[in-house]
């Protein structure tokens, strides 16, 4: 995050500084050749800034560069008043000023990946052409080419902008009754279901964890996004069409008649934009299963079905007083855990165990703050004192809180120092979060220390022991609010029980059998060798409406929370 901020600041300084310096050199000192070279450098800096800051406004800098280039052009030709250069100046000014509005209008256009659609000319082409045009005019000035050269090049790019602008205006004010190219391509694809996704930046993991299982359903589908930054990373993770829909009209365009089901992975506010389509069956599949407060969100009631990992999820809604008809729940397991190695208790613990530590983030609200990073340095210190190797995998949102980021950095420094001193191969940072998947981390570890989060449910599948941090003031009521902690070892905020907890976690493990029973309650009773089939079979059944089961076999008819 810090590196990204530095790049953005550097790009901004370079673009502004070089543009101002180029104009001053040409206009005030008469140093035409150095000024034109600096103008080209300013254009390159502007292109770079657009890459690191996609929404960057470089109008003022572009105007300065254009003015400097035209003044330099006039001086190089030494021809006095030149009508062609005056006309070039007007065209350049119009292009620079129209670039922003054109990009804004283009931002309301549907965009796709992994779909055979010929996009034609777009606002991206115009935005790219403007710095190229200014560079070409600067080159003409350096070579002292006739002024008509600058005018012709400018008119060509102006024509490009005009074509794009007319197409956008026609689509906005005179929409065609015929299907758009995107709608036609999707109709040819014949998708039977879609995954709908809207979330803050950095949340693409919520989709990528499900893509392999959606593909294994064996039916054509598409991913529908509401934020443009997810288009590239999600398209790279699947062969299915990915469609970015910035407006409600764009969603109308993407929802072709062949679609039967819409899956959702969170409770984002924009989900309502798709739920309004009553011809679809709307299914919430979630991006994790935990005892956190958001996992019993009342918004779940708006979906036709809620696919949940186990009976514990259904009980969670009832415990929270959220009344959802029982038939809306379908127990499907948590397919993402299928590759986790399972050890039937009792689990032998090596003399120097590897412990996975997964602190969560602070959450959006105080009642969802389960983050243990304030005590993480002390917890990890005790693990190191016991000779443990630590895998530290922090939540992707940790950097959103500056204090949490500082706490995490101190723990990482502690691990680095211990690795240098002892040679123990601790893992943290991108090595634990990108080079390794969560499944890799679980399989490499012998035990887990985690905050209240979905990681515990996934780890439960392995059969190995875990400890849960209690960062609130619940005391003895902690396991009532978070039942999954009943088969784990509860680590209190003041760490008064840390030595006893670690002795049980890494030694005696008295909760081994209770943990195995909890595993079925939270993750369903599906065979290990075909665990993911629970989800796949339920999804396929809902794609054939006549065959949809009303409830899971273990579910009764009364409403949850009744």
Shape type: globular
Profile the largest sheet. Answer: 8 strands, mixed
Mean pLDDT: 86
Tally of individual helices: 22
Helix content: 40-55%
- Order of strands across the widest beta sheet? 1-4-3-2-5-6-7-8
Radius of gyration: 29 Å
How many beta-strand elements? 13
The total tally of domains equals: 3
| Poorly predicted segments | 547-562
Structural class, from secondary structure content?
alpha/beta
Separation, N- and C-terminal Cα atoms = 46 Å
The fraction of residues in strands falls at 5-15%
Oligomer: single chain
Q: What's this model, at a glance?
A:
This protein has 562 residues and is α/β, with parallel strands linked by helices. It has helices spanning 2-29, 32-52, 59-77, 83-106, 123-142, 147-173, 181-189, 205-208, 211-216, 231-235, 248-254, 272-275, 311-319, 373-385, 402-422, 430-433, 438-444, 454-460, 478-481, 498-508, 512-523, 533-542, and strands spanning 111-113, 193-197, 221-225, 242-244, 261-264, 281-284, 305-308, 329-331, 354-358, 389-392, 447-450, 466-470, 489-492. The protein folds into three domains: 1-173, no CATH class; 188-333, 3-Layer(aba) Sandwich (Rossmann fold), CATH 3.40.50; 354-523, Glycogen Phosphorylase B (Rossmann fold).
Detailed description of the structure:
- The protein has 3 domains: about 1-175, no CATH class; about 190-335, Glycogen Phosphorylase B (Rossmann fold, 3-Layer(aba) Sandwich); about 355-525, Rossmann fold (3-Layer(aba) Sandwich).
- The radius of gyration is 29 Å and the shape is globular.
- Helix content is about 50%, strand content about 10%.
- The protein has about 550 residues and is of the alpha/beta class.
- Mean pLDDT is about 85; it is low at about 545-560.
- Keywords: Membrane, Transferase, Transmembrane, Transmembrane helix.
- One of its GO terms (cellular component) is membrane.
- One of its GO terms (molecular function) is CDP-glycerol glycerophosphotransferase activity.
- Pfam families: Glyphos_transf (PF04464).
- This is CDP-Glycerol:Poly(Glycerophosphate) glycerophosphotransferase.
């Amino acid at each position: 995050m810090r590196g990204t901020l530095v790049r953005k600041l550097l790009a901004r300084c370079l673009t502004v500084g070089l543009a101002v310096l180029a104009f001053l050199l040409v206009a005030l000192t008469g140093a035409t050749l150095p000024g034109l070279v600096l103008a080209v450098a300013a254009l390159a800096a502007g292109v770079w800034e657009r890459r690191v800051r996609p929404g960057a406004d470089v109008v003022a800098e572009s105007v300065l560069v254009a003015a400097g280039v035209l003044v330099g052009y006039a001086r190089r030709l030494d021809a006095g008043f030149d009508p062609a250069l005056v006309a070039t100046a007007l065209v350049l000014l119009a292009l620079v000023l129209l670039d922003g509005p054109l990009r804004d209008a283009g931002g309301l256009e549907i965009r796709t990946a992994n779909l055979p659609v010929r996009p034609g000319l777009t606002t991206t082409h115009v935005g790219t052409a403007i710095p190229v045009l200014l560079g070409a005019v600067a080159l003409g000035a350096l070579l002292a080419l006739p002024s008509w050269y600058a005018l012709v090049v400018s008119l060509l790019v102006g024509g490009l902008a005009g074509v794009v602008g007319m197409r956008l205006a026609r689509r906005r004010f005179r929409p065609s009754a015929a299907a758009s190219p995107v709608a036609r391509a999707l109709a040819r694809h014949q998708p039977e279901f879609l995954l709908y996704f809207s979330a803050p930046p950095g949340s693409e993991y919520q989709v990528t964890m499900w893509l392999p299982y959606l593909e294994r359903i064996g039916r054509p589908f598409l991913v529908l996004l509401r934020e443009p930054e997810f288009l590239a990373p999600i398209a790279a993770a699947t062969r299915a069409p990915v469609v970015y829909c910035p407006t409600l009209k764009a969603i109308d365009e993407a929802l072709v008649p062949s679609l039967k089901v819409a899956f959702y992975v969170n409770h984002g506010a924009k989900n309502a934009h798709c739920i309004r389509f009553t011809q679809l069956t709307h299914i919430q599949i979630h991006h994790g299963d935990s005892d956190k407060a958001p996992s019993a969100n009342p918004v779940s009631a708006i979906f036709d079905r809620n696919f949940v990992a186990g009976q514990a999820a259904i009980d969670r809604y009832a415990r929270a007083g959220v009344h959802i008809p029982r038939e809306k729940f379908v127990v499907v397991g948590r397919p993402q855990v299928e590759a986790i190695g399972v050890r039937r208790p009792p689990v032998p613990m090596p003399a120097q165990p590897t412990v996975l530590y997964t602190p969560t983030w602070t959450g959006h609200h105080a009642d969802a703050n389960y983050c243990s990073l304030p005590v993480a340095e002390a917890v990890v210190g005790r693990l190191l004192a016991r000779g443990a190797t630590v895998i530290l995998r922090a939540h992707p949102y940790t950097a959103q809180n500056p204090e949490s980021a500082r706490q995490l950095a101190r723990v990482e420094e502690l691990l680095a120092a211990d690795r240098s001193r002892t040679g123990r191969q601790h893992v943290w940072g991108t090595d634990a979060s990108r080079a390794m998947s969560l499944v890799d981390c679980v399989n490499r570890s012998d035990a887990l220390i985690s905050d209240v989060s979905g990681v515990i449910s996934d780890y439960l599948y392995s059969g190995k022991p875990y400890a849960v941090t209690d960062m609130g003031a619940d005391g003895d009521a902690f396991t009532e609010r978070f039942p999954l902690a009943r088969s784990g070892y509860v680590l209190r905020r003041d760490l008064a029980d840390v030595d006893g907890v670690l002795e049980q976690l890494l030694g005696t493990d008295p909760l081994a059998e209770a943990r195995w029973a909890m595993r079925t309650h939270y993750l369903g009773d599906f065979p290990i060798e075909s665990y993911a089939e629970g989800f796949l079979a339920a999804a396929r059944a809902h794609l054939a409406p006549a065959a949809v089961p009303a409830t899971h076999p273990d579910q009764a008819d009364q409403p949850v929370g009744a």
